[in-house]
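User: Hi! Is it possible to get a structure for several chains at once, not just one? Here's what I have:
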Amino acid sequence: MEKKNLSRQVADDIYRMIAVTQELRPGQQLPGEMILSDKLGVSRSTLREAIKTLCSQGVLEVYRGKGTYVAKSMEGFINFGLDDLNMSRSRVKDLFESRLLFEPQLAALACQRATEDELKDILAAGAEVEASIRSDRDRTAADQDFHKKIAIASHNRFMLQLLPIIHSAVSETISLNEQQALLSEITLRDHAQIMYFIERRDAEGARAAMILHLRNAMSVLGL
Amino acid sequence: MEKKNLSRQVADDIYRMIAVTQELRPGQQLPGEMILSDKLGVSRSTLREAIKTLCSQGVLEVYRGKGTYVAKSMEGFINFGLDDLNMSRSRVKDLFESRLLFEPQLAALACQRATEDELKDILAAGAEVEASIRSDRDRTAADQDFHKKIAIASHNRFMLQLLPIIHSAVSETISLNEQQALLSEITLRDHAQIMYFIERRDAEGARAAMILHLRNAMSVLGL
DNA sequence: CTTGTTTGCTTGTCTGACATGATGAGCATA
DNA sequence: TATGCTCATCATGTCAGACAAGCAAACAAG
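Assistant: Yes, the chains can be modeled jointly so their relative placement is included. Here is the combined structure:
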């Protein structure tokens, strides 16, 4: 087990009290820091660090001199995280919901704005993904590079810099999936389609192919 | 000025060191907590709470016995803060291109997923923006809160995390614009439309209203 | 060269204290 | 009675100092 980071553990405990056991409900006031730290068997400093974490995540709201409360916006999140598995599941779903917005547009923009060299880069990166899959290596790095090359060709610097955030968040949980073989197969086919349209600078075709690619991945992941 | 929350202030200071002045670069190690707390003129506890906040936001990474480091994923966020000099017109255009992708979607999702309380929050935030404009106060904070409330109601945690990054990047350039009066007028009208559709949970209406709002803003900004 | 130990850095946690904001009970006054 | 003030009380905010524990490089022994 992970025995590290007491304060993190405390944060998880409190979150569990809200999202799972529902000892604490949205809008409800928490016991004072002295009492709560004693009940949880940690010092007040440690408890406060845990609270700060949950606070910046929008789970708790602290009012000086008044008390600490469960955010009312947590109403929508309770029952979503019955366990860690479902919790990460909903997070990945959020991520793919975001990718479905960004990446098809990036693919379309790439068709309109890419230089010839960037076009070649995309095709080369796609070939690298294919090689990784066929040689049974880890394809995550190559896959992210493929999407990154498309983002570069879109000439939208901001989305380009947003991409690694999304990818790093996805890769955490995607590697836990069992159906890696199926996922690889679908990736192989979808990437070929995407590259087909990008090579011909067909923006709407590329957009549709990217949407399909992401939806297929979501389907395999059971989202 | 805001005299509240020293630890929050410290967190902002550190973030500024990374995103604006670039005293701290992605991957770089921070000074030890003793040294840094002394340099910032606060106690170690306060500094640690600030670090915890930035940590849960993915800005910093802490390794016990080794040190605290600026996350490498922050590479994409530098220069998107208050640095208006290096922010070229095309970058702002890139930003709005991004907002056009997901803010309309957030508005639509909010219509479908918001709780009654969250709906009220959105309307209250909208009223606050109106009050700020009519009393000729700075509307940026209220405006960002309005969009944030919509993001919360969308129940997509990831996009909610992305929002402050984009807003912080946009806010500075907007405040430099000369046509504040016109922008305020348009905002007043557009927000009313957005709230009209959200209140009735008309997803497509809200989406269209948000698109119009952003395009109007871009028009005023000359993008 | 390899291995084991020491040493000095780092963060993690605990304790106790005082400062400051929010609140309501109780009292004085009109 | 009604109103306004003071103050005790409880909440979080901040501080200071101490010790535990992890990590890595320098160092000593084989």
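Chain A touches chain B through 37 residues (CB under 8 Å). Residues 84-220 of chain A form a domain with the Four Helix Bundle (Hemerythrin (Met), subunit A) fold (CATH 1.20.120.530).

User: Great, thank you!
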